[in-house]
Design goal:
alpha/beta; five-stranded parallel sheet; 12 helices; 35% helix; elongated; binds glyoxylic acid; D-isomer_2_OHA_DH_cat_dom; hydroxypyruvate reductase (NADH) activity; Glyoxylate reductase/hydroxypyruvate reductase; oxidoreductase
């Protein structure tokens, strides 16, 4: 009998095709657009050799215990892997694949779109046009903040941060600043970005964009300390993980005019409850975690996750493996 892999969702066609055509595994799948119920996951993972999952599944000690010693590979169709308990995976000698690079462009593009939508108040303005608020052309109405001659601060200068900077540069950005665990001279040189402290970044930036991974070190780093130092004309954008931001503090900063606006593609929790206070703010644009959502990108992510899984099953080097 072929080893079994469990796929936790309906995934783009390229991914499933690669698994099927490999002929080296038996595929079982939660064939739905909605997440697999936890109970079902715990049941189906038992005895599987491979697990193909998404960022919506928390892969922790409970799942690994349910899986048992057969489980050798976990492949997530995401660049982020904060939903995986790496310590527990490592302890059990389970290898982990993820999907960097293939989504960099799509995420950077969406980040620029969200930044412009937020700073130029697109959603609010379109609502006014539709709902009778237009009235007439008004010199002081719906004014936002432009990118020309601006300073952009990047929190976490990796592949995505660099791709965002490259796309923003042609809009006339004057200066890029960044913070990270330490200086990243190679990337920084390519986009002429200056390494500064979080405090300097907050004080000087007209736009701040968060592109770091969620780790114990980055959890909640965008909090009232940061917001209180930002310009009150500044725009805050997050397309990484919701938990990097203290949402209470962000709500306060947005509602008392400490900062100008925020655009979020990620929140805690996801989905954000409909009665959440952030939804009531006109200066907060919230998207349902769609940064990598282009047809090509999602197919590429699905294919890469499939190839990672197959390589792992065969004991070969994965195209993109998380170093444990
Ligand atoms: C999306 O958030 C991802 O991690 O791929
Ligand atoms: C804007 O439409 C202008 O003509 O200034």
């Amino acid at each position: 009998r072929l080893p079994r892999v469990y796929v936790t969702r309906r995934i783009p066609p390229d991914g499933i095709k690669i698994l099927q055509q490999s002929g080296i595994c038996e595929i079982e799948q939660w064939d739905s657009d909605d997440p697999v119920p936890r109970e079902e996951l715990l049941k189906k993972v038992a005895g599987a050799k491979g697990l193909y999952c998404l960022l919506t599944e928390k892969i922790d000690e409970e799942v690994l215990r349910a899986a048992g010693p057969s489980l050798k590979v976990v492949s997530t169709m995401s660049v982020g892997y904060d939903h995986l308990s790496l310590d527990d995976l490592k302890k059990r000698g389970i290898r982990v694949g993820y999907t960097p690079d293939v989504l960099t462009e799509a995420v950077a593009e969406l980040t620029v779109a969200l930044l412009l939508a937020t700073s130029r108040r697109l959603i609010e303005a379109a609502d006014e046009a539709k709902n009778g608020g237009w009235g007439t052309w008004k010199p002081l109405w719906m004014c936002g903040n432009g990118l020309t001659q601006s300073t952009v601060g990047i929190i976490g200068l990796g592949r995505i941060g660099e791709a965002i900077a490259k796309r923003l540069k042609p809009f006339g950005v004057k200066q890029f600043l960044y913070t990270d665990i330490g200086p990243r001279p190679e990337v920084a040189a390519r986009i002429s970005a200056e390494f500064v402290s979080m405090e300097e970044l907050a004080k000087q930036s007209d736009f701040i964009t968060v592109c770091c991974a969620l780790t114990p070190e980055t959890q909640g780093i965008c909090n009232k300390k940061l917001f209180s130092k930002m310009k009150n004309t500044a725009v805050f954008i997050n397309t990484s993980r919701g938990a990097v931001v203290n949402q209470e503090d962000l709500y306060q900063a947005l509602s008392n005019g400490q900062i100008s606006a925020a655009g979020l593609d990620v929140t805690v929790p996801e989905p954000l409850p409909l009665d959440h206070p952030l939804f009531k703010l006109k200066n907060c644009v919230i998207l349902p975690h769609i940064a990598s959502a282009t047809v090509e990108t999602r197919n590429a992510m699905a294919a890469l996750a499939a190839n990672n899984l197959l390589a792992g099953l065969q004991g070969e080097a994965m195209p993109k493996e998380v170093p444990l």
